[in-house]
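Need tokens for this chain, all 173 residues.
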Amino acid sequence: MVLETQRLILRRFTLDDAAFVVELVNDPGWLANIGDRKVRSLEDARNYLRKGVLAMYDRVGFGMYVVTLKESGEPIGTCGLIQRDELPDVDIGFAFLPGHRGRGFAFESAAAVMEYGTDVLGLKRIVAIVSANNRPSIRLLEKIGLRFERTIRFGEEEELPLYAYPPADAGAG
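Here are the structure tokens for all 173 residues:
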């Protein structure tokens, strides 16, 4: 276990989470807002975990975590911090299965991850990139303290809004 909130436990992914990963990354919301990771089988999911999340734990000591319900242990989503080569700052990410959206779980886990990132990991700045039309995620980013900073070109994607905590101009004035 990495983090615990009132209703949730956030823990590291393991290869045993492959079935959950297949379900999550093929959800229409994930595909529309995050993109197709071409994970269709349990073996695809294990490779995705090995090359991504598990490798990041080894490289930087943190990453994305499985969000589970405290009562049942059921995995309902993912939330965590990512150190991408394309961004100078660590960014926060989250995604939840459809049946668990709109119930405050994303806010509860993201707020805990922000606190963990700043208080435990000592991060001075946390950012997020988000699809411009993903209003629910933008509202959540603003609710946990990130503010729109600028648009950036990310990979082969169109320009994406970059949200930051604290924003670059936070010290100005």
